[in-house]
Structure formats: structure tokens, C-alpha cells
Amino acid sequence: MVYNAEREARDAETTAAHEAQIRLTGEKRVLMRAVTGELVSYTPEEYGVGRLGLGPRINTRWGHLVYVLAIGAVIGVFLYLPLHGLFVEGDPESGWFLIVPALLALLEVYAVRNLIREWRAHKLREERGLPRPAY
Q1: What is the pLDDT of residues 67-76, one digit of tens each?
Q2: Predicted confidence band at 107 (pLDDT cuts at 50, 70, 90)?
Q3: What is the DSSP letter of 3?
């Protein structure tokens, strides 16, 4: 990695402005590197879904949409199979398999929540001219 004095100066300036903003307003802010390579101070609403903790590492709103749709498709399959066995084949034991889509529905709620949060964050960043966080 090549040392870039100009970038270091911009990073120091951004860090100082970030800390001053926190001291001045007391609001929570996140200092992260953007996809452009620059440090950017985001509000939690602008940052969107956390990208460093547990859970899926999805960075875009379209990725979250695909994730939600994929979980929905899996729920559809796991709903069809036990219901088909229960009503068409008359097997009362297959009703127990409805637990699987019920558990997947909880994951779907979490994924939809993340999709909405990331969609709003993208809209805020677009309005304010901020780049997308890199991670």
C-alpha cells in the first residue's frame, strides 16, 4: 500500500469534523470508508444496515430484495409440501412440517426490515450526495 499524504490529511480532517459534530450535536454518527475510498461520516439512517456484524453481508438494496424474494420462494416450497401431504394425500403427520415455514417467516420479517432500512438509507444518501459505505 502506497502512503498518500493528501489522503491522510483528508482523513484527519474528516475525523476531526466527525468528532466535532458528535460533540456539538450529541447525535450518533458512523465514520466509515465509502466505496470511493474516502472517509465519510454517516448518521445511522444514512448508513443503513450494519455491514460488520452477524448476518448476511449484503451491501445494496437490490441484494436485500433478492434475499427477501429467495426466502419467500423457500417458504412457498416448504408451505406447499406439507399442505399437499396433509390435504391431497391425507397424511396427518405432514402437518408438523409447517413448523419450518413458520421459522422461515421470522427470517423473512428480519430480511424485509433490513430491505426497508437499506432502501431508506440509499434514498437519504442519494438526496445528500453521499457515496455508499464500502463495508
Answers
A1: 999 999 999 9
A2: very high
A3: -
Rounded to two decimals, the pTM is 0.79
Residue 86: band (very low, low, confident or very high) from pLDDT cuts 50, 70, 90: confident
Write the single-letter amino acid at 123: K
- In the chain, where the domains are located: 5-128
The DSSP code sequence of 53-112 is: SSS----SHHHHHHHHHHHHHHHHHHHHHHHIIIIIS--GGGGGGGHHHHHHHHHHHHHH
Residue 38: DSSP 8-state: S
| The predicted structure's pLDDT at residue 123 | 95
C-alpha cell at 38: 474516502
Alpha carbons 83 and 92: distance in angstroms, whole number: 10
Distance, CA of 59 to CA of 34 (rounded, Å): 12
Element containing residue 34 per DSSP (H, E): none
